[in-house]
Amino acid sequence: LLWRHREVNLVHLTTLYPGYIADFERRHPEAAGLSFADHQAALYRDAFAWSDYFVRHLKTRGHAGLHLVANYASLQGKWAREQGFTPAANQSAFSIVQAQLRAVRPDVLFVEDCFTFSTPKIHALLEASPSIRAVACYHGVESDPTTIVPRDALLLTCAMGLVEDWGALGFRTA
User: Fold this and answer.
1) What angle do CA 147, 101, 172 make, to 5 degrees?
2) Which of 31-40, 48-57, 68-77, 93-102 has the lowest mean pLDDT?
3) What does the alpha-carbon distance between residue 16 and residue 19 come to, in Å, rounded to a whole number?
4) pTM, full prediction
5) Which candidate, 63, 18, 21, 17, places its Cα nearest to that of 40?
């Protein structure tokens, strides 16, 4: 295993429902004036969806990690400004994620939203951050993953009935 003999650095890449982001900002107007780290901490205190659970618990085990919400424009924009990064105009959200991966240099990329970050985008992220040694993708619905999940990624699911089907397609599953 990757983490048996050294610290592992994981990036958990996801998106959140736009309605939730709007609701969070309505309930927490003070977040607009916070730094990236403080804004992100406020978001985690809200404990929505998977929040920072993986990263937080990995850190208690001596590992490093970062949870990124790719579609939270104001939060991602804060990171870009604080780092002096000017995103490409035509792909600003994606170029910020690429810059974050270059900066963080993760060993493991965990993609929670494989519909937004399908195979071509994951390959672009791997090119942006050659430090990535393993990719895991979460896919929780019955559908054909061959068009959205890279073949060499570990395919994670909560739908245990799909594990055998996806294994028959050649995916490593858990």
Assistant:
1) 40
2) 48-57
3) 8
4) 0.86
5) 21
Burial code (b: 16+ CB inside 10 Å, e: under 16) for 111-139 equals bbbbebbbbebbebbbebbeebebbbbbb
Question: Per this entry, what is the length of the chain?
Answer: 174
How far apart (Å, rounded) are the C-alpha atoms in residues 92 and 11?
A: 19
Nearest-angstrom CA–CA distance, 137 and 109: 8
CA-CA distance, 65 to 136, in Å (whole number)? 14
Cα separation, 7 vs 61, whole angstroms: 9
pLDDT tens for 128-153 read 999 999 999 888 777 778 888 888 88
48 φ/ψ angles, rounded to the nearest 5 degrees: -85, 145
The phi and psi torsions of 164 (rounded to 5 degrees) equal -65, -40
Q: Say how far apart CA 166 and CA 163 lie, in whole Å.
A: 5
Residue 14 CB-density burial (10 A; 0-12 exposed, 13-18 middle, 19+ buried)? buried
Torsion of CA 44, 47, 53, 59, to 10 degrees: 30
